[in-house]
## 1
Amino acid sequence: MKHLHGATLIAVLLTGATATAAFAATRIVVALPADIRSSMPGTNRDDNTDSVILNVVEGLVGYGEGGDVKPLLARSVETSADGLTYTFRLRSDVRFHNGDKLSSADVLWSWNRYMDPKTEWRCLAEFDGRNDLKVLKVEAPDASTVVMRINRRSALFLDTLARTDCGMTGILSKASVKADGTWDRPIGTGPFEFSDWKRGRGITLSRFAGYKSPEGSKPDGYVGLKTPGVDVVQLQVIPDPATVKLGMASKSVDIAQLLSSDVVEVKNDPALVTSAESDSSKHALLFQTRDPLMADAKFRRAVAAALDYKQLVDVASDGLSKPNNSAVFERSVYADATQRKGFKTDLTQAKALLKESSYRGQTIKLIANKRSPMPSFQVALVTQAMLQAIGIKVEIEVLEWATQLDRYNAGNYQMMSFSYSGRLDPALSYEQFTGDKARQARKVWDNPEAIALIETARTVSDKAERQKIFDRLHEMALADVPLINLYNGLTVWSRGKRVGGFSPWEGKLRLWTARVGA
Amino acid sequence: MQKNDTSSLLQVSGLTLALADGKALVHGISFDIAPGEMIGIVGESGSGKTLAARSLIGLAPPAVHRTAGSIVFDGQEVTALSAGALRKLRGSRIGMVFQEPMTSLNPSMAIGRQLDEGLALHTTLSPAQRRARILEMLERVRIQDPAAALSAYPHRFSGGMRQRIMLASAMLLRPSLLIADEPTTALDAVVQREVMDLMVELTRDHGTAVLMISHDLPMVARYTDRMVVMHHGRIVESNRTAALVSAPREDYTRKLLAAMPTRGPVREIPQAAPILEVDGLVLDFPAGGGLLSKRPPKRALKGIDLRIAPGEVVALVGGSGSGKTTLGRAIAGLLQPSGGRILFEGKGIARRSEGWARYRAQCQMVFQDPASSLDPRMTVGASIGEALTGMPGLTPAARRGRILEVLQEVSLPAEVASRYPHELSGGQRQRVAIARAVVRRPAFIVADEPVSALDVTVRAQILELFAQLQSRHGFSCLFISHDLAVVEQIADRVIVMRHGEIVEQGPRDEVFDRPHHDYTRELLAAAPRMGGLVHDAMTP
Amino acid sequence: MLRFVVRRLLAAAPTLFISGAAVFFLIRLIPGDPAALLLGDQADAASLADLHRRLGLDQGLPTQFSLWFQRMLHGDLGQSIRTGEPVLSLVIDHFVVSARIVFVAVALAAAIAVPAGMLAAWRQNGKLDIGLVSAATVLLSIPSFWLGLMLLYLFGLELGWLPVIGYVDFSEDPVAALTYMVLPVATLVLHETGILIRMARASTLEVLRLDYITYARSKGLSEGAVLWRHAFRNAFGPTWTLIGLVLGNLLGGIAVVETVFTIPGLGRLLVDSIFGRDYPVIQGCLLFVAFVYVLINLVVDLLYPLFDPRVAEA
Amino acid sequence: MKLRKMNAAIGGTILGAIALAAGIGLFWTPFDPVTLGYAKRLAAPDAVHWLGTDEFGRDVLSRLMTAAATSARISVLTVATAVLLGTLVGVLSGYLRGWTDRVLMAFNDALLAFPGILLALGFLAVAGANEYGIVVALGIAYAPSVARIVRGTVMSLREMDYIAASRLMGNSEFFIVWRHVLPNCVAPLVVLATSMFGWALLAESALSFLGLGVPPPAPTWGNMLAGSRPFIAKAVWLAIFPGACISLTLLGINLLGDALRDRLDPRMRNT
């Protein structure tokens, strides 16, 4: 697997030369914080792996900029009246990297492979009924139509298909698998081909000349305009942040993700363009309501009123982000005026609430970790200082990430400075921290009414009705303060002047947006 | 055998050696050696004899400087020589033999090369000639299979063999002067005799003068023409050996001679039931070896039978490796015998048996090395006091009184009780060890080479003290020693051991005057005893 | 000779087994679940169960251990939980990186320190001795990672002579790889020289005190011959054993220097796999380090008779 | 002899100065070492902040002074733990010999091949991220080397005649160990403890480097040095001063250690 696929390379050079009138192949180098875990979409993966592979494979449907699901390989998706049958009409102009045309047989083959337990697909449990939703039947009435029947109404069926950690349920060509059935490499329909992978060192992606972009004048999440602009993308594994910074300074790296703390240093470097892109991940302060003191809503409200969110977020994100107390991320289609309402900083009210609460000067343990790039510790440090100001004694207990995750999953903490991974659909985002504590110890908000509301949001697909539910949930959260959402996570990117147009989405590489010499 | 011509080989006059801070160690000593003459310097440890000898060829430790005096060797003033010239002298004209055979040969270099080094440096012989000369010399010093010895490493040879190799190395270059610094102190009596005879033979053949340094007066007296007695860095007296021994002029010399052990009076030991009986005692040492190789155990004691009557001093003698120490420790209860019986006052002494408690109270031991017999971290009083723990009905005041009383018995001042072992001399430390042994009035004491680590005069005092205590308290004693002269003075009965067996046993006079076993005769012959002082060594 | 090697390996087997078992159980007892780490904060119960089964973490600890032990005997140390790569090749690749730097550094340090230590012992309390010992003490006192950081700052950032951070493998570009090695090797050399000078000096002092040095002098040999032929060989024995010890320790643990210079060495791999609870890799690393430790001591003992023939017959 | 007096003098003055600074640090520091001062972040050393400020705007000098006490406390506790455990194991295996010795030494060697970080992580996770976790972890990491040395001393002591004499007086083995063996282990242990103090200081810094040391709010030289690494290009003084403190302390300890070893170990007296 280490050797370069001769055929593909030649093909690239030829196509590159002919298609763009004999220009030399344009090439950019992109820094990766770690090597990809595997080249199989949605299997043995992490966010970094998805970020690379989703340039190579595409699913029937994909996320738009605002987190809504739009058709991608499917021209259109119709849902039956009872919401149990989904009919996907495939686009006719789509080809695989090896030239074969996309047909419903490929979709069937890919689906059956994902649902085969041996593949160990990350989202198998989402569709085999273990998490309530079960896909009953998948058929291909004709070459360009695929029909899927599911066991119960769900507003999240398409959303789950499009989830990046499921590999967008990317449709693969049979050629991705060797004769003996073992996995070779992903031959998908995406804008880039998976040319070569040197374990531990890097991955080479080359432009898929025969790529036909879905409609759209400009990039829109994983849909919209997706025509690739660079011939060869060399993804270089550079684990150490300091090295990345120096790679950028020495022009040996074109695009890289930086730490938010590096921005102030890199910002005024004329040769670099630096941008911060917010995503749907959330940084929050959790309360364990099973702890006697934390169960006291007055105390939680006192804490909420004591924090100066503007300054806290300013320090934690090195001035690159602004507060968002809602579980719905800033750029979501559901982010309306109500969601923008947040906690009001009011020290006098905070002190009053504190006096009424059951707090008698005990020292509260606030768990945090120092793993880069998580801002957990900076958030904890500032929170400690601000709570000290109104007389609440806080001791920060720094744990190593694996241990903190353990304590989070077991609910074994008083307060914790934690970061939730991105969830685009508000229902999923609320569901991250809402639920019955008896069944799932990691849940923070054990409020039956909220649980019921989320359940309805999972089945009802009408946008206006879901918007009302999410606004109601937001008001309840502001009042109940089960946790304090502080701000949406952000990724900081830097690119050399010679690379134009590149813009990541949800912290993931959209290589098709990159141009050379904008 | 006095050389007639007056031109002496070496003249040392007014030699003074001092440390950097001016403290003098050797004060203006003068003596001279005629070619071929054998002269001995005798003195106790700390008398400066070794220092003086080593400074003759500039081998004194760097901290010691010659502040006065001259050393004329074969007409040349040695002290004026350049380092290079002095080095030319060493090895070729002046050879040296050292005391400790175990560390005086380079462990990581074959014998052949070590012998060849001096030859190659000082002669123009070809390698083949040198090899022949070395082989011939090795034969002279009776090393079996000299050719194989050339490529062997020092650790394959016994102490005696190594000392012979040292001798060969020094004599290879036919030096005109050989300095022998305590050449045989570390050896067994029998081996000692062999090496000394060899040295005399070799030096006489090559007409080499010998400067012998030793603290063993009888041995020096037997072999040397003239003797020099040193004390605290000064020469007390120097004279022809026979004259010095028979008519010593200075008090210190007289004191030295008087310290020589002489045969003690015959004592009547009342016949009584034996206090200690040993029947068929066998003891094996596990041969070690890892998990895999199980070598057969080494048998140290092969069936010992002996009796000790109350108040009797029984001596246990034999060469090193004869098993006398092992027997002593087994009897004291420190080693677990593999077979046979030890009875004390008729009862067994095994750890859990009822005789054990009484035996622990009634049997004590005195050890050889004063440095390791007392706990450095405890004061003298505490060490002696420890023996009294477990004595019924002893108030602290009575205990203190008892300690002071026993210190007085071993003629040590009371204030010693609060001092630490490292502040005392070897003799004083041994007195404390004896005090600790007798303070509980035991009925039986095992003394394992109690005096062999001490200087001549101190040894005499300790032996005398021991005899006094024995007669006053009447304890019986098993006295282990390799020094027949000491045994002759102190023992009522003598047991001779060899390779883990008793070869001869009987009253002291019987064994000394009419030895039955060949080994006993060999031992007696080897041990230079002042008793019948005669220059038998000099008449071949 | 072979018998000696086999006997040594057998003697080391229990220690290796105990450390292997101890590591196996300790890392499973400390909190932190590799499957949860893989799935992040949104691990739903079902997919967590799938992953546990796939990684074999659902069986009882004893069964897991016997499974791992049998496979280990056949040289299969399992796959890394994080990347799926076979552990053995992963560990060896990283070991080669660390070993290259450590061996060069210790060799250089020994080449400088041992002669210096011996000269210092020979000229005891002379100006040379005091100078060398004081220098050694200063070098010894500077923590290697701070030394590395300062060298990095001086030569990398300020003067820019040497590449600051990153790592190029020999296979790709030998010359560049060499420049990347200069600073880490220099850091280790300075630190280890301090330690080795003091060791060499102490063992030489021991030897100079023995009789056979005076015997050699009594043969009229020059001081140089005495030092070279007699003192050096005998003093080098104990120093050689200590060099083995230093080598063994360094191979297992220069994680900190590797962090400063971002070298993908064994130490770094161990630390990252501990943070990621990558059980097979942790066990693979520790077993490998323990084995290397035994191997080095074995080599040291095999070469020891060169300096002290008495040992040869043991 | 001259060398020994010089060592003791220099070592003494260095440690004295640092101890003084640490002592003062307990009560007073020029600025509050913990509160964040957003205004003056990463300020270079100047008249106000003699040693500059760190990435949170906190005064480096004040943090160094308070850190001195923490680092010293951790090192002392670590050495105490290691010596306690090591002596126990060393005496048992050195005195009893036979199978006990073989088993204990097998475990001991297994522990020697154990990297300190894994132990530290194990205890930090169990005992929570605090000083005690580190002290116990490092203590156990260093116990095996103490055990090795104590075992060697005890094995040689065991052959001494005064031990045999005490046994002949009917004293129990336990009494002998308590009265004779342990007191004589004190000298070598004291010499070892001084060098181990240096190791512990180093190990705590190394652990902080790997993100495992004492939790950040409480400053130690180790975590200050570790924290300074990302800012080395812009604020190198953040790395220089903690490193210098560690090196000076180690230098002082080593010099004092040498002087002490010469005095306690008679054989080395003439160097």
## 2
Amino acid sequence: MMLPALIVIPLLAALVACLGGRTRANWPRRVTVGALLLDALILAELTRPVPAIGLAPGWLAHFDAPWIPQLGISLRLDMDGLSLLLLWLTLALTLASVAISWREVTAHVGFFHVCLLATTAGIIGVFLATDLFLFFFFWEIMLVPMYFLVAIWGHERRVHAAIKFFLFTQGSGLLMLLAIFALAFVHRQSTGEFTFDYFKLLHTPMSSGTGMLLMLGFFIAFAVKLPVVPFHSWLPDTHTQAPTAGSVLLAGILLKTGAYGLIRFTIPLFPDAAHRFTPIALALGVLGILYGAVLAIGQTDMKRLVAYSSVSHLGFVLLGIFAWNTLALQGAVIQMIAHGISTGALFILVGSVQDRLHTRDLRHLGGLWHGAPRFSAVFLFFAIASLGLPGLGNFVGEFLTLLGTWRVSPPAAVLGAVGLVMAAVYALLLVARALLGPANPQAVMGELSGRHRVTMAAMIVAIVALGVYPQPVIDMASPSLLHLGPLSARAAPLLHLASRQDQP
Amino acid sequence: MGAVAPANAILLAAILFGLGLAGVLIRRNLIFMLMSIEVMLNATGLAFVAGGARWGQADGQVMFLLVLTLAAAEISVGLALILLLQTRRPTLDSDVGNRLKG
Amino acid sequence: MNALFTLAAIVAVISTTMVVTRTVAVHALLYLVVSLLAVATVFFTLGAAFAAALEVIIYAGAIMILFVFVVMMLNLDRDDADRENTWLTPRVWAGPALLSAVLAGELLYAGIAGHGTIVAAREVGPVQVGLALFGPYLLAVELASLLLLAGLISAYHLGRDSGRGG
Amino acid sequence: MQQLLALVPALPLLAAVLLMLAATRIGTNGVRILGVGSVALSALLACRIAVAQIGAGWAVQPFDVTLWHWMRIGDFAPDVTLHLDGLSLVMMLVITVIGFLIHLYASAYLDGDPGYARFFACMNLFVAAMLTLVLANDLLLLYVGWEGVGLCSYLLIGFWYDDPANGRAARKAFIVTRVGDTALISGLFLLATSFGTLSIPSLMQHATTSWPIGTAMPTLAAFLLLGGALGKSAQLPLQTWLVDAMAGPTPVSALIHAATMVTAGVYLIARTHVLFALAPDALLVTGLIGAATLLLSGASALVQTDIKRVLAYSTISQIGYMFLALGVGAWDAAIFHLVTHAFFKALLFLAAGAVILRMHHEQDITRMGGLRTAMPGVFVVFAIGSASLAALPLVTAGFYSKEAILGGAWDSGPSGRLLWCAGVVGAFLTALYIFRLLFIVFLGEQHRHPHGVTGWRIGVPLGVLAILAVVGGGLQTPALLGGIAIMPGILGGVFGSASHEGALALLPLVLASLVPLAGIALAWRWYGGGLASRFETQFTGLLLRGWDFDRAYDRMIVQPLMWLVRVNHHDIVDSFYEGLGKLAQRTHAGLSLSENGRVRWYAGWLAAGSVAALAIAVLS
């Protein structure tokens, strides 16, 4: 019963926040924090070393209830280590979003927190659902409140951005819906049972052409979310226009649902098709890394720059997922978490610049260090984390990913490493243009407020911990990734051949 | 006395219809447009009557009667509208009344 | 009979052309009455005496009277006629006229090519029409009466507004 | 005692963190004590460990300290393990001791700077990162230190952030070295994929057992590691960042050039010398690059007018010596030269800093001159440093280390003889440019009067370093001159017992010792009277700009990239999607034109539609 509670609590809290938010501005905030903490408590209870009895190895919790039995649709939720990690990330970043919006959001406070909680609930659902229909349901649920977050509390071109976001994700989601239905029908043709149950749909026999088409349906949906070049173009606009909390949620968690989907659904459901797709996926990953970096170098809008850097970083995740070995997959998972923290933090910092100086334009900024050395030091820290300095979380992710990728395709790994050089260029340019230089009378900002400071400190600790001792994360994720073990073993002979040819 | 071929009446109807349509399209004054519509309706009625005459059935004239009713109703509302428009706006130019523009 | 038909048809076409091209509303209206009377004659030659009578009474009589009233109430004068002239340049009417001509041509073509043998018209008397009206078409008649009622009410409503001057 | 090894890098790291967090609360004195004290403690600890580990015949007892398991993914299990052997011991001592002297000096040099605490935080972090680099048992941990060093150099070069030029220099340093790092990390991928581990000892063992000499794999791996080393050690073709790095405060330059950072590349190759020994091609290239760098930057140093730029080119040139030594397999000579270079280069930089400080931050040597009388102490130590750099025979440390390198080159076959020639020419250039600098700055007419006096916190490090620059040669002397073998003893455990000294022929030794004298003599002839621009040819501009590498890179790499960035500023892919949107809008606009509210048009369209429909019905 704990799994549905994780989803229901934020929704109930949203209701409460909405009802009581008219009169007292702090009421929705407190309710939101309370609900998130309650969720965290439940999650802490679920984070135990011994899995519950009666579950398949690797799975930590399970819930099942009929929904539309005639169509084989049920309310099925399952949690494994990967979901658990991402749920922790979700709760932490949502909490951070609430904390940093405490002062920044003053309009429609109640509805803001309703949207925040509803998005969170949708995301939690996405990470837990193991019925494909239910998964799609949550997948769509998280979009709508996110749309409102951008469209109501965003910046100058918020409506344009929100619509773009919605169209991209909705359009790709429909592709996935088609693929889900097609998969269910294919499954019925071969077994006679009409079901959306993830575990039953695994190992559905199908022709290679069908498999490729369905795989692409899923892949594109997740690729848009991840985002993979050339489906990335909603992201810079949306990130730039979203309010700080929205950017944090988007960058920190929403993008991860794409990666999660690839790991959880695309590859296990269509291993052969996905495997045949590997060269293209690797190329897309590398393209994303380099293209995102090139674009990030050229930006003068801080938020846009960070957004393009996300495109670059998530290219590593795609590489890791399609490298077909545990190292790279672990790297991808760590990169997901580290990126969530570091980019989330950068968005928070940029957001506070925007909030105080009312500009994100690097051409008007500079010399912030003079007025706000602590703020600048923190900014510098996360910029450096983002360029992948060893000892911090992002490096572990990138290193493992590229190491795993090297086994499949050394050129892809080398090009990915070139992306690291470009990451240095854009991160340092960001630092130089925003923080360094002579004192700028138009850009004097005070230090961070108390809530910001605590949030930042927690994020710094998290990213350092991830960098120097990632083992807990690795241990937690490894059973989920071992699910893919047999696949990579199956893939191994082929890949071995490929890598033989590739290696000099 | 040679009987008239209804086919010829149909041809006449076609010509009258065309003329009426030309009137609707060419004229900008609402009064003239209404008149042209009358011509078109009349042409339609003629076609019905000719058809009825061809088969010796009453249905053609029944239809004409209905068309007539329609024309009467339409014209009464249309003229009332014209009067209303005239008092609101001192022109009967149909091109000016394009508030419904999308 | 054929000669009468031909004559009536020619009158109808000419007067209708005049309706479309006149600049003074009353002139056009008179031509329209002529056209309607010509069509009534055509009805007669087709053996539809009842329709011919209705055409004269209701169309040429009642409806045209409505028009006359309205045109009088509109106070159209010389200026309006001049304006009509300025609106009737070849540039304006060439296109629509061509379009209408094409449509009429198509209809004519369909009318000529459509049938094989030419059959004479057969007379249909008022009795037949009356039986049909209150037999199989009873519902249609009732609907038509409702339509007229609706027209009456709306015309009254609109006219009342216009009477107050909007 | 062995467990305390972790404290050596941990102390500066801890101090750096404390300085960052509590800078405002502890005051200048607190910062000074914390910043300098941590490195001092670290140095003491390093000495204590050295004493404990060095046994008979100067042999070092190697040991490992595993702090924690970094990660375990299947077979891939890098640990955070510190490894102490002769090589890392020498490096650790150099870093901590020289580092401490530089810190002490900096505490005076930076007095009154608003970023005092930030400066010491970065300096301490720098030392900590470098210590991590040299003590790492695992290439991955080494990479942590490697990049950490790069980061600190970035922070320190751009320390005076008010001037955007400093920021540019700092960025350049970081990015250029990162280009090399890409090669290094690719090498790491290659090694880890081949052997499933990155632990250096087991890597070396695997490599010797499974890779035959001269085959593709070890060569490729060695070249990739070499790429990383070239970047960090500012060798051709990645040397351009180091000269610009002079934008940082002088103690930073001293730290980068003497104790940390640029020596990292030399250390890396020495550390993985087993792998390089398997790849003769890579070794040859290493030597050639070293020789080329040595000559090219030595020539550039001849014409520079900025005191720090002369020294910067000199560093590049001297690191070239070390690469040359590595290229001929004279590992211990390279490390020996690294040590003596650390002594005299730190001395030169700090002395130059003292001059700069007292000349109101004036760095142009054409505006100096005749400082001998005003600053006799600094003159003496500068002269000692210059002599040591120029390898004045018998009395300086530089002489012995340079002889070790040239001797090693002489002994290693025909290609070695070629490199030997380059080394001798380089020695001549070295003597010429450094004494040119000395004569111009300290002799001749006095243009400006220096102000103030040189305090003890500046004087003591200079004195200590001057002594070291003289007696440092006593660590290893040729057989002809006593055959002291402290360095070979310490390093023997790592490199095996090298025995160059017995084979060293007298002729090259004498020849090589006379060359610096010739250089000094020429410098005296040209510049003995003080400022005189004798060495002016049409090449001067080219030399001044460091052979135009910067311009070439700008044309070939930076500008194309920036062009791409500019062209693609608005994301071509996005313009496709925006184009779709525009198309929809246009279509909408077009269609709404038809919706114009004019009833005649509607009727017209209706008629047109009827015409079309009828045409289909009738004509078909």
